[in-house]
Amino acid sequence: xxxxxxxxxxxxxxxxxxxxxxxxxxxxxxxxxxxxxxxxxxxxxxxxxxxxxxxxxxxxxxxxxxxxxxxxxxxxxxxxxxxxxxxxxxxxxxxxxxxxxxxxxxxxxxxxxxxxxxxxxxxxxxxxxxxxxxxxxxxxxxxxxxxxxxxxxxxxxxxxxxxxxxxxxxxxxxxxxxxxxxxxxxxxxxxxxxxxxxxxxxxxxxxxxxxxxxxxxxxxxxxxxxxxxxxxxxxxxxxxxxxxxxxxxxxxxxxxxxxxxxxxxxxxxxxxxxxxxxxxxxxxxxxxxxxxxxxxxxxxxxxxxxxxxxxxxxxxxxxxxxxxxxxxxxxxxxxxxxxxxxxxxxxxxxxxxxxxxxxxxxxxxxxxxxxxxxxxxxxxxxxxxxxxxxxxxxxxxxxxxxxxxxxxxxxxxxxxxxxxxxxxxxxxxx
Length: 430
What we know:
It holds the Pfam family ABC_tran. GO terms for molecular function: ATP binding; ATP hydrolysis activity; ATPase-coupled transmembrane transporter activity. This protein is an alpha/beta fold. It folds into 2 domains: 2-374, Rossmann fold (3-Layer(aba) Sandwich), CATH 3.40.50; 387-427, no CATH class. It contains 17 helices and 9 strands. α1 packs parallel to α8 (221-233) and α5 (139-150) packs antiparallel against α15 (363-378).
C-alpha cells in the first residue's frame, strides 16, 4: 500500500531529523529510542470528575465525567473514543488545561507532577477539530508566523526557518508550502493539507504531549488514514499522543496503541487496543444486530455494541463490568505506580515542569510578528478589506451624491441640510 510506504518514509525522516536511528547499528538505534522515551512525558489521571451547572435543575450540578482514570505513554498513540456526548472532548480539554469553567475533581499528573498552566501552554500541543488557520498566508508563512511567536527570540531566523522546513517535510507538505491556505471565498490548499498544517503548527514548538480533537473530521477515508499515519510517525520522537476519534477506518484504528472508551462520561474500557475486541465480545452479552463481529472493522463493531447497550439503558452496567474486570485492576496498579514515579523523572523534564513563563517571547516581539505577517497581508487581501473599507466607500459615495454642493448655499433655509450632513458624517464615521 502506498500509504504504508509513505508512513515508513515519514517515520524514518522524523528519526533522522532528531538524531534517532543515526547510529551504526540496531543497538545504537534502540539506545537513542530509549533515551527519547525516558525524556518523554507520561500523563496519568485518576478519579477525574467534571461538574457543570445543571440545565434542568437550578442550583444543582451535572457530572460530564465520572471517576475516569487512565494514562498516556510516550512514543504511543492513544485513541479516545465513545458515542457522541460521551465526554471525549471534555476529557481532552481537561488534560490540556483548556477548561476554565466548571468544577474539576481528581488528579492529573504529567511526569508524576501536577502541571502548571505555564507548562501546559509551552510544552503541549493541541490540534482543534476545526481548522483555525489564516487564509491569506501560505503554508510556510503560517508556520513561520507560529515559529516566530512561540520559539525563543534569541534563536536565529534561519534556525527557525530550518525547523519549519523540517516540519513541512515530515508532514509531506513540500508541494504546498508556497500555496495560500485559502478560505470560503478564496481557493487554497485541500482539507487534508489543512489538517496537516494544523498539526504542523502544534509541532513547531517541539511539544512533549500532543492532543488532537477529531483530526479526521471532514476527510474522506483515504485522507483520514494518511493524516493519522503522519501523526503515528511522530511517536518515533518520543511524543505522547492522544486523539479523539469518532469512527475510524480499520487502517486508522490499527495505528493506535491504546484505547480509552467512554460512555456518558464513564470509563468502559482502557487498555491495549488489540485486546478491546475480545474484551467486548466476552463482556457484553447483547451486542446488537447491526454490525457483524467478522466485519473486519473493529472500531465500528465496538462503537455499535456500546451504542446499542447504552440505548437499552445499560451504559452504567458497562462501566460497572469494566470496574470489576481484571483489566481494570491491572491498569489501576500501573496507574498508581506511574503517579509515584517522581524520582525517576529526568532533569530535563523537571526543568520544563518548573518553567516560569507560558511563552518564550515578550509582548513587543509578538506585536512585531503580528504586524510582519498579518497586518501587511491583511491589506493585500480583498476579503479582509471588503467588509472593513468597501462599505465605508459605498456610504461615502451615497452621502456625497445626496449632499453634493449643499455647503455652498449659506441661506437660512439650507442650514438644516448642512446640519444633517454634519450629523450623519460624524455619527457614521468609523
